[in-house]
Design a protein that fits this description.
One of its GO terms (biological process) is superoxide anion generation. The protein has 13 helices and 17 strands. It is α+β, with helices and mostly antiparallel strands and 466 residues long. It has 4 domains: 166 residues, Tetratricopeptide repeat domain (Serine Threonine Protein Phosphatase 5, Tetratricopeptide repeat, Alpha Horseshoe), CATH 1.25.40; 54 residues, SH3 Domains (SH3 type barrels), CATH 2.30.30; 78 residues, Phosphatidylinositol 3-kinase Catalytic Subunit, Chain A, domain 1 (Ubiquitin-like (UB roll)); 53 residues, Roll (SH3 type barrels), CATH 2.30.30. A hairpin with a 2-residue loop joins strand 15 and strand 16.
Length: 466
């Protein structure tokens, strides 16, 4: 069986699992002639779901035989032995899984195609449970102590509950692998399984044959030849001009053109800017960037059609309108135009409409890191703002205003770890970050730390906070 055949069957089996058709998925996996360690692992997981523990053990044996460093395979075989009540072998596999972690807090198998993280504290948790079954309560307590040392915040409650049970010499629940999660083939390899048409279908672009739909291969057909270019140009609106210099637009109403382009001037303004049409688009180009084209029989060939001029372009003419172009740096950069002397309300309202955000939720400033002096608001003297404009252009920075979220303590919390935050009932706590749904990071007075979300209640955001 080739690699492509194996990959195709692997992908088909995983698709069946997604559709909850587990028997068909298992049948396809078992039909693969030379399974790798990941496919053996998937077979073992499906057998576990069917509670066929002997077949699951055999599949995990194959996975470990193919890859002796696959910690999650040792972990799953240990769970299989636990369900078969073979506790000594179960403890051995959990120990091998912990060794395969090599001192890391966890292994994230996402890069290998498995959406699962194996935590060292969970492996130690299960080792402690097996030791408890064997009556080795001291060893169980030592394993849980190790689990506390390498725990993560999301696993804190799990280890704490197990520790309290061990102190009372009571058993607790096994941490199990979600058996419906399987190793998936590389999505880039799977995409290459589909057949691709690299040639495509030929399409008639131009032909002298009416309604020509021929799409095969044939000798070239005669094409329409435009031998009289001036006649064509004269039929278009406006007067033809050739572009001499490249223009980089600075506003939305200017056109991007390069030397050699032919544009058609509709109107020349008093400020030396011409309204032109180019490639079906209408916009402004400096008239001193253009040269008229003369197609009379005695005219010479216009300069610049074959090669662009090498001299520097002339200065851009100044627009005589009383408009200022404002470049706004947000999460992206954009530009707006306003009449010079506009009020703050007009400015912030136009920016808010452009961003589709409430104007009151935005902060404007002259510089990137806004300070009290650089912030622009309703109290700012707008005359000083517009005086900063040079050649009708101005740059500003904008960011959303984030309201501060606060909590009120419902109960007193005494920290049990150095990183925890202690507080008394009724204290006000400022939120710094949300770690997960159970734990938060905050500040109470001058102290910062983490605390359980169940001990506090969020305060409503007032107008002053905003």
């Amino acid at each position: 069986m080739t690699f492509l055949d194996t990959l195709r069957q692997w992908d088909d089996a995983v698709t069946c699992v997604d559709k909850k058709n587990l028997p068909e998925a298992l049948r396809i996996f078992l039909a693969i002639e030379e399974p790798n360690s990941k496919i053996y692992f998937n077979i073992g997981c499906l057998h576990l779901l069917n509670k066929d523990f002997d077949a699951a053990e055999k599949a995990f044996d194959g996975s470990i035989r193919k890859d002796e460093h696959l910690a999650v395979a040792f972990f799953q075989r240990g769970i299989t032995f636990y369900k078969k009540e073979r506790l000594e072998e179960c403890l051995g596999d959990f120990t091998n899984a912990y060794k395969a972690l090599r001192g890391n807090q966890l292994i994230d198998y996402k890069a290998l195609g498995l959406r699962y993280k194996l935590f060292a504290c969970e492996v130690l948790h299960n080792m402690a449970l097996v030791e408890a079954h064997l009556g080795n309560w001291k060893n169980a307590q030592e394993n849980l102590q190790k689990a506390l040392d390498c725990k993560t915040e999301s696993k804190l409650n799990l280890i704490d509950k197990a520790f309290r049970s061990i102190l009372k010499q009571k058993l607790f629940k096994l941490v199990e692998f979600p058996s419906s999660e399987l190793f998936r083939p590389n999505k880039h390899y799977v995409a290459e399984l589909e057949k691709k048409d690299y040639l495509g279908k030929a399409k008639v672009v131009a032909s002298v044959v009416p309604q020509d739909q021929f799409s095969g291969f044939a000798p070239l057909q005669p094409q329409v030849i435009f031998s009289n270019l001036p006649v064509i140009l004269f039929t278009l609106e406006g007067k033809a001009h050739i572009v001499l210099f490249e223009l980089f637009p600075e506003t939305s109403d200017e056109l991007a053109v390069v030397p050699g382009n032919i544009v058609f001037v509709l109107q020349k303004g008093a400020d030396n800017w011409a309204t032109v049409i180019f490639n079906g688009r209408k916009g402004l180009v400096p008239y001193n960037y253009l040269q008229p084209l003369d197609f009379s029989p005695t005219s010479k060939r216009p300069e610049g059609i074959d090669t662009p001029p090498t001299r520097e372009p002339p200065m851009r003419p100044k627009r005589k309108d009383n408009t200022c172009v404002i470049k706004i740096h947000f999460t992206f950069t954009f530009a707006i135009s306003l009449p010079l002397g506009s009020s703050y309300e007009v400015l912030i309202d136009k920016i808010g409409k452009k961003l589709k955000l409430e104007a009151t939720s935005l902060i404007l400033s002259y510089i990137l890191s806004e300070t009290g002096e650089s912030v622009i608001n309703a109290k700012t003297d707008m005359k000083s703002v517009w005086n900063r404009a040079k050649d009708g252009r101005l740059t500003m920075w904008c960011k959303p205003q984030e309201p501060q979220i606060s909590f009120i303590a419902l109960h007193t919390y005494e920290s049990s770890n150095p990183e925890d935050l202690s507080f008394q009932e009724g204290d006000k706590i400022l939120l710094l970050s949300r770690i997960n749904q159970d734990w938060l990071e905050g500040q109470c007075g001058e102290k910062t730390g983490i605390f359980p979300a169940s001990f506090v209640e969020e305060l409503p955001i007032t107008q002053e906070d905003e």
